[in-house]
Amino acid sequence: VFHPPRNIQEEKPFEFSIRYKFISQSDAVVRYGLPDKPLELGRVTPGTYCTRQFDECYRNKCRLQSPNYPGMYPRNVTCYWTIRQKEVPTSKHAMIAVSQENQHKALVKRSIASFNKTSRSIRAWSDCTGERDHLIFYDGSSTNDPVLAKYCGGDWLPKVVSRGPEMLVAFHSSPFSAPLQQGIPNRGFELDVDILFTDSDSYDFAQGSKNQCEFHINATNPDLQKVTIA
User: Fold this and answer.
1) Quick one: which of 77, 95, 65, 82 has its CA closest to 204?
2) pTM metric for this prediction
3) What DSSP assignment string belongs to 205-222?
4) Lowest-confidence range among 19-28, 97-106, 113-122, 203-212?
């Protein structure tokens, strides 16, 4: 609770107090899930603050949570979350999907102006300028892989789907921050992870090179035509 200065001439310009309490992990259902249905929050990479590894998310409910979720995440932090699906049924192809439909769980910190709206919206790509907090989704397990999406806040996160069984999600928070308007929550975010299986010869995913799309056109003449778009 913040108390403004009573008198500018006082020795102490301001004061504040903090209230907190400890609860058991079984009661912390927002962060850890229900006791009989716990959430899979990944394995922390040794020597890091918030980098985690996720494997086989088709078995458990994997969730990507900002540091200190559901509380405020710190400034000037970078987290890397690697998601891998190693077990794939025969004749199937695995893809990673990350999304969030609930507004109260998609709170990457936004500016005050972005709250003055009447419709559902997101901020992505060119909106993620300057020092804005943002998430980057890579189509693979490395930052050298193609970028699927860049997200920096909104009322939801549409489903981001990888081409294959690996995805890297990078979260960067700005070193600078300003308090939002009174009454506007400044919490973190939680993203849902799903594993999608499709037939190995399906057109539901891009096959071949990650950097181009290939279209094979069978024309009326016996020669096959091939078009490559880089």
Assistant:
1) 95
2) 0.80
3) S--S-TT-EEEEEE-SSS
4) 113-122
